[in-house]
């Protein structure tokens, strides 16, 4: 696998919580599907001379949680991460930890959190995930630990391209190709994500040894945000993607590997389609999306 540089600081910016605040209230007719509010980072794990802050959603369960981390410019309280976690927690536990924008340090934090959970629960940790730069850190951690230790990856807004649309094959593409059989990967991406080229992603998925699934949010950007009238449904949409990910972890079909989430403008609600086979048509062909 590619060597991680000591000072590999990620330049990607994730929208701050302030920029992501809703300018309009959520439609009261379609409230968020989750009642689990984001927990403040009140717990910590010792790491050398530091403390890794984390939040555990739905902690009172025997199930091993998804270990998840945020992007480069935000934190675990940023809406793109906290809304996803709240939706996920309606179905399964999720541990979100706070990290630095340094990619190497984020991988080190992943390993520290995994080892802490294994000592505390005496069980393996089969699922890792993250959004944006955090998704890259999850992949690198899985490669370091091996597929016997990590069975599933949930990659939200995976940055296949660097800032400015630059390709970095070794740092972003090759690491996906190095994932072994036995690892299942879920990509959750916005259709308008400027840091992911969908044609290239399709080629990558065909080349990957690991099995992969794709959930596309129509009209969403890299920060999982919507524009125009659909913006009122952003929080519900992000929570819905968390629910999709949790259900995927529990049960998934090898042949049905793609689904979509979209805003139905006529009904004023977020809609999630069924999982379908790759190549069975897209939203534009089926004319599902009404904006």
Task: Provide structural commentary.
By secondary structure, this protein is α/β, with parallel strands linked by helices. It has a single domain, classed as Alpha/Beta hydrolase fold, catalytic domain (Rossmann fold, 3-Layer(aba) Sandwich), CATH 3.40.50. Helices cover 28% and strands 22% of the residues. It has seven helices and 13 strands. It has helices spanning 79-88, 103-121, 133-145, 169-177, 198-207, 234-250, 283-286; strands at residues 43-47, 50-57, 66-69, 94-97, 127-131, 152-156, 161-162, 166-167, 184-190, 211-217, 256-264, 269-272, 276-277. Strands 1, 2, 3, 4, 5, 6, 9, 10, 11, 12 and 13 form an eleven-stranded mixed sheet that branches. A two-stranded antiparallel sheet has the order 7-8. β7 (161-162) and β8 (166-167) form a beta hairpin. α1 (79-88) crosses α6 and α2 (103-121) packs across α3 (133-145). It starts with 42 loop residues before the first strand and ends in a 5-residue tail after the last helix. Mean pLDDT is 84; it is low at 11-39 and 283-291.
Topology readout:
Blueprint: E1 43-47, E2 50-57, E3 66-69, H1 79-88, E4 94-97, H2 103-121, E5 127-131, H3 133-145, E6 152-156, E7 161-162, E8 166-167, H4 169-177, E9 184-190, H5 198-207, E10 211-217, H6 234-250, E11 256-264, E12 269-272, E13 276-277, H7 283-286
Parallel strand pairs: 3-4, 3-5, 5-6, 6-9, 9-10, 10-11
Antiparallel strand pairs: 1-2, 2-4, 7-8, 11-12, 11-13
Helix pairs in contact: 1-6, 2-3
Organism: Pseudocercospora fijiensis (strain CIRAD86) (Black leaf streak disease fungus)
Pfam family, one: Abhydrolase_11
Protein name: KANL3/Tex30 alpha/beta hydrolase-like domain-containing protein
């Amino acid at each position: 696998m590619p060597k991680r540089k000591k000072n590999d600081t990620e330049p990607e910016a994730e929208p701050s919580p302030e920029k992501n605040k809703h300018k309009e209230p959520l439609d009261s007719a379609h409230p968020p599907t989750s009642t689990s509010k984001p927990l403040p980072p009140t717990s910590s794990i010792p790491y050398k001379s530091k403390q890794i802050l984390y939040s555990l959603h739905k902690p009172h369960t025997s199930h091993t949680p998804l270990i998840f981390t945020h992007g480069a410019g935000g934190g675990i309280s940023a809406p793109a991460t906290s809304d996803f976690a709240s939706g996920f927690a309606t179905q399964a536990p999720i541990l979100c930890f706070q990290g630095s924008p340094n990619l190497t340090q984020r991988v080190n934090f992943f390993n520290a959190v995994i080892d802490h959970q294994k000592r505390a629960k005496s069980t393996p940790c089969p699922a890792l995930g993250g959004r944006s730069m955090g998704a890259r850190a999850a992949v690198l951690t899985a490669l370091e630990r091996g597929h016997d230790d990590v069975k599933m990856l949930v990659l939200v807004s995976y940055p296949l391209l660097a800032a400015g649309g630059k390709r970095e094959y070794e740092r972003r593409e090759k690491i996906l190709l190095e994932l072994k059989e036995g690892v299942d990967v879920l990509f959750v991406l916005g259709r308008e994500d400027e840091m992911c080229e969908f044609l290239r992603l399709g080629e990558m998925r065909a080349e990957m040894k690991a099995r992969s699934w794709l959930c596309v949010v129509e009209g969403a950007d890299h920060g999982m945000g919507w524009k125009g009238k659909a913006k009122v449904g952003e929080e519900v949409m992000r929570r819905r993607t968390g629910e999709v990910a949790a259900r995927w972890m529990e049960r998934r079909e090898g042949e049905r590997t793609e689904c979509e989430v979209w805003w139905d403008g006529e009904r004023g609600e977020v809609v999630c389609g069924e999982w379908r086979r790759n190549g069975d048509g897209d939203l534009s062909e089926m004319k599902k999306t009404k904006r």
